[in-house]
Amino acid sequence: KLILLDSLLQEIYRHQPAMSAADKSGGKVTRVKARWQLDFSSKSGQSAELPSPPGFSAGGAALVHAEGSREADPNLRIKRSWDLALGPFKQVPMNLFIMYMSGNSISIFPIMMVVMMMVRPLKTLFSVKQTFKGFEVGANGVGVNIIGQKLVFILGNLANVALAMYKCHSMGLLPTHKSDWLAFADPLVRTEYSMGGLGFN
């Protein structure tokens, strides 16, 4: 390896000019530059235009700008807010199917399903403002009225809570019968006593 390095250095020194040559016309001394040398002493007023890197396209910046303007489109923001507001209503058919498949027996799976169906909408109802926070202000900083979307969102979550309550009723977990309140009922007062075959009022 050292021999190859030495021969390479000798070849470089052989092609590199050893001394300066004088110019015949003006007597100026000029140096012949090698191909791998760069001249940083000359400062040009205008920077040379560099070629684009591989994979770069000038239309990419336009696409990014178009995507940003599309995100700022008020119609698109209203459409997304309505999609978010109708999300709870879209969960109603799936919840009905799960209610049908779980049955009315008192076991772990139906009880867990009912608890999740009731807890999730209730937690969502307490975070309505945080859910629609990104849609309350438009792209130009002006407030947007989204009361209708919020009302639809709240009604959808209340519908899911009502389904969970109906499931609890069908499983017999709600005290909706008189027999469920016997512990709080007044004791019966006797109006007649019988003794020895004789009646006393």
Measured between the Cα atoms of the first and last residue, the distance is 129 Å
Shape field: elongated
Please bin the fraction of helical residues: 40-55%
Largest sheet: 2 strands, antiparallel
Decide which structural class fits the backbone: mainly alpha
Measured on Cα atoms, how large is the radius of gyration?
43 Å
Separate helix tally: 8
User: Tally of extended strands?
Assistant: 4
Low-pLDDT stretches are 18-29
Sheet-strand content, in percent, reads under 5%
Query: What sequence of helices (H) and strands (E) makes up the elements?
Result: HEEHHHHHHHEE
How are the strands ordered across the major sheet?
A: 1-2
Return the average pLDDT rounded to an integer. Answer: 75
Task: Present the secondary structure layout.
Elements: H1 2-15, E1 21-22, E2 29-30, H2 59-71, H3 74-85, H4 87-90, H5 92-102, H6 108-125, H7 128-131, H8 147-170, E3 193-195, E4 198-200
Antiparallel strand pairs: 1-2, 3-4
List keywords for this structure.
201 residues, mainly alpha, two-stranded antiparallel ribbon, 4 strands
Can you put this structure into words, describing what you see?
By secondary structure, the protein is mainly alpha-helical. 50% of the residues lie in helices and 5% in strands. It contains eight helices and four strands. The strands form two sheets. The chain has a two-stranded antiparallel ribbon. The chain has a two-stranded antiparallel ribbon with strand order 3-4. A hairpin with a 2-residue loop joins β3 and β4. The protein is elongated and about 145 Å long. Mean pLDDT is 75; it is low at 18-29.
